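Contributing new records

If you add data, match the layout below exactly. Sequence lines come first and carry their own label; structure lines follow with theirs. Keep one chain per record. Anything else will be rejected by the validation script.
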Amino acid sequence: MDTSRTIADKGIRVILVGDSTMATRTGYGDALCKRFVASTECINLARGGRSSKSFRVEGLWDNMLKILADNQASAASGNARKTWVLIQFGHNDQPGKAERSTDLVTEFPVNMARYVDEVRAAGGETVLVTPLTRRSFKDSVLQNDLRPWAEAVIRVARERSVPVIDLNAKSYAAVAAMGTAEADTLAEEPQPKMPLPEGVKSRFDYTHLGPKGASLFADMMASEIAAVVPAMARYLR
């Protein structure tokens, strides 16, 4: 049996692993899944507030490995799918909460490399993704304190010989060109125009995405996927 042909005929599977900027409702992940053709199974496992450490500690990574294990087990019956795992962390790895923060030098790159190794061992393909930019301007200049984490991801991708999408650089350039006012329209909710009543909280911030932001960055990701991973291009709309 030509296993590679059988897998191709079944369509592909794309699994998204990351934080809130990729997750359902607050990120671009669901919108990206819609950019794939109907035969593609796209599973968004990204969760808000997770880092390269806490995603594993909480057992969420085990859920992803179970999908790959089941896929390998079904290969003999011809039901396996070529599977790509897109992994994006960085936001919550930054210093803050002890249960999720990681050291940029000694922990974060080790965690990312381990993810790559485990996907490969389980029969999947990894695409690393650098963290989406925040939309915080200071004196009309967009800040980018996530760049060191992006560069760490790029180094891991180079060392492990896996594709990498520098979403941080692409999204930073796009948001910087917009300016503050237009960038604010990408948020989960519009910025409040007046003080909110006591006890009422706005979901506006400079990190999470509403439908407009999700659509913009899903389009950006689809374009980058097609360029960086040509084998995936024909599965994109």
